[in-house]
């Protein structure tokens, strides 16, 4: 390029464009080669500078608490019957825990529950630690239109403590509201649930009972037998009470703004800890909440194996 100045005009006409195109060609080649070299350098860095961010799975530590496991199993079984999961607060007001559920103020049925009350507010109203999961029935019916088909797992509280009672325990509540729901649906739903849950044929019976929020009401028992220290569900000649249930009381429907001439439904409530004890053979309910690592590693479940109906619940 530098010699162009000494050339004749004729020569410049030929050499000028020739040199220019040579220059462009070289620049393109350099650019291509540069891209190739940079790409190779990046690949080499990626290959040599890897960092494994994953931890190896420690299948030997950490377990699912039996209560967690049983709640998962219940959710799986009821999901198969078309139930969704609903939740509500542990600290409830009197309306949701009692009044709307057809426990009028001052009614003796309120004393059935040994309620934990919080300090009264300036109006003298006391919030409670919910004594059952039934208040979530009210919350759901007031916020959702039927058809409703939910289960409500959660913590519940009563002032009680012995081998089969703890101040905090767990319930699963069920609620179905539709236009043609009847007691036959209630029985079929619960019978199917019990056999799926205990993974064997379970014989059940329904006894008349009283709950303020259902009419008629029943308690359901399962057939069992005690062999040594072991309880065997589904055989024998003894009956064990497992849950409360019934057809939702017309007053409860009205309290939630539903017309009892148009809608009916059933509800049930059962103790999760009690079912866990029965299924997995834990003798004392209080151990469940003692937080003893040895107990947890003995009775706990692998967090890697999820309950499902296809390959088995537990
Ligand atoms: N709430 C009752 C209890 O804790 C259990 C129960 C009984 C729930 C009957 C229901 C029901 O939904 O229909 O004692």
Report what the structure shows:
The protein has 314 residues and is an alpha+beta fold. A hairpin with a 2-residue loop joins strand 7 and strand 8. The radius of gyration is 35 Å and the shape is elongated. Helix 2 packs across helix 7. It has two domains: 4-48; 66-299, Bira Bifunctional Protein, Domain 2 (BirA Bifunctional Protein, domain 2, 2-Layer Sandwich), CATH 3.30.930. 34% of the residues lie in helices and 23% in strands. The chain has helices at 9-48, 66-80, 94-97, 135-143, 183-198, 250-255, 272-280, 293-299; strands at 84-85, 91-92, 128-129, 148-157, 168-178, 204-211, 214-227, 230-233, 238-248, 264-271. The site of 3,4-dihydroxyphenylalanine has 11 residues, from strand 9 and strand 10.
